[in-house]
Design goal:
It is built from 6 helices and no strands. It is mainly alpha-helical. The mean pLDDT is about 95.
């Protein structure tokens, strides 16, 4: 990694998302009024916009860096973890989503390491990872913004999030198994 990579706009946006994590957690955990919860949701929406922007800028202006390949997914996962751990304060049963998320992410880290040991790495998120992430953020933002919503609606959102995470986990695991069983042949 080069020093100049730290100043690339996409990487600065990823760093901004990481900085927003404690801001979100603080605002959400201390929220009392409906406005406080809406501010928490707006922080997440802003974080999501910066995530989208960093990807667009990196691809469009050829600013993809090794640092960015690490920072962007790290910012995503840290943000997601902060969101669901914060939601534990408000919602019963969100812990099930927390467990699914942690199992998924830890097993994918192990698979990434195994792939790296073969001298390879995954080149970005696959479509089902992107869909899962979109569902995660949409449901989470609603849960954050409206903590007094009907419990059945909240449980439905949690269920949808859990199913999306499981779906992604299963398909990623399948992808990694295929990749790990079929290492590239060196000529």
């Amino acid at each position: 990694m080069k020093k100049s990579d730290w100043l690339a706009i996409p990487n600065l946006l990823s760093l901004l998302r990481i900085i927003l994590i404690p801001v979100f957690v603080s605002v959400y955990v201390q929220a009392v009024t409906e406005a406080d919860y809406l501010w928490s949701a707006l922080i997440l929406i802003f974080s999501g916009i910066t995530d989208w922007l960093d990807g667009v800028i990196a691809r469009r202006f050829d600013m993809i860096t090794d640092l960015g390949k690490f920072l962007d997914p790290a910012a995503d996962k840290l943000t997601q973890l902060a969101i669901i751990l914060s939601l534990v304060v408000t919602w019963d049963y969100i812990w099930i989503v927390v467990v699914i998320f942690i199992i998924k992410e830890l097993s994918l880290i192990v698979c990434d390491i195994l792939l790296l040991r073969q001298g390879r790495m995954m080149d970005g998120a696959l479509w089902y990872g992107k869909v899962s992430t979109a569902i995660f953020y949409a449901c989470s933002i609603i849960l954050v913004a409206f903590p007094t919503m009907n419990a059945n609606i909240a449980y439905g959102l949690m269920f949808l999030t859990g199913i999306a995470l499981l779906f992604s986990f299963i398909l990623y695991t399948r992808w990694f198994i295929i990749e790990l069983r079929n290492p590239p042949h060196n000529s």
